[in-house]
Automatic annotation (TrEMBL):
Gene3D superfamilies per UniProt: PgpA-like (1.10.3760.10)
Alphabetized InterPro entries for the sequence: PgpA-like_sf, Put_PGPase, YutG/PgpA
Organism: Sporosarcina globispora (Bacillus globisporus)
Superkingdom of the organism of origin: Bacteria
Stored SUPFAM superfamilies: YutG-like
Name assigned to this protein: Phosphatidylglycerophosphatase
GO MF annotation terms: phosphatidylglycerophosphatase activity
Length: 167
């Protein structure tokens, strides 16, 4: 295996491992995709949601966003960032916005309809997003909640596009 391929594998494996360690499973994200798409696809199967989440997770730019966001969340939890960033991320300050901007690099991989899904799901916070936003947990998920919403939004776009192509 050449060096570049090895690096790709390490990136993907680490991104998947960190999601799991931070309490997010593929099924949790697939549930969000189902939530977003069931009204448009009456015969939607959970396995299709899972498949599309897997495809999104195989993209390098998505893995990079996961690694970057989760790293910052973890450092904030351990109080290892410098001020003022430490307090901003630890308290999930509303006007910060860089968490959403990072997530947009995921949302856009399958076109702009992902953007609508992202805004919608961020407003309603169903399923795992509600847990990630629970500030009483003592954990910091300032970046992760947006990343998970963005993966679900991108997987929904991918699913919608492939359904369109199938017709
Ligand atoms: Mg956030």
């Amino acid at each position: 295996m050449n060096e570049e391929k090895k690096a790709v594998n390490v990136t993907e494996q680490t991104a998947r491992k960190w999601l799991h360690e931070r309490g997010v499973e593929i099924q949790d994200i697939a549930d969000l995709v189902f939530f977003l798409q069931e009204k448009y696809h009456p015969k939607l199967k959970m396995e299709d949601c899972i498949h599309n989440v897997e495809r999104v997770l195989s993209k390098r730019e998505v893995q990079n966003a996961i690694l970057t966001g989760i790293q910052l969340d973890m450092l904030a939890e351990e109080k290892k960032l410098l001020e003022p960033l430490q307090s901003i991320i630890a308290t999930d300050e509303g006007l910060y916005g860089a968490d959403e901007v990072l997530a947009l690099s995921i949302v856009n991989v399958y076109g702009s309809i992902g953007f609508t899904n992202f805004g919608y799901i961020d407003k309603l916070k169903p399923g795992i997003l509600k847990d990630l936003n629970d500030k009483s947990s003592g954990r910091c998920h300032t970046f992760l909640d947006d990343i998970v919403g963005a993966i679900a939004a991108a997987a929904s776009s991918r699913l919608a596009h492939s359904a369109e192509n199938a017709e």
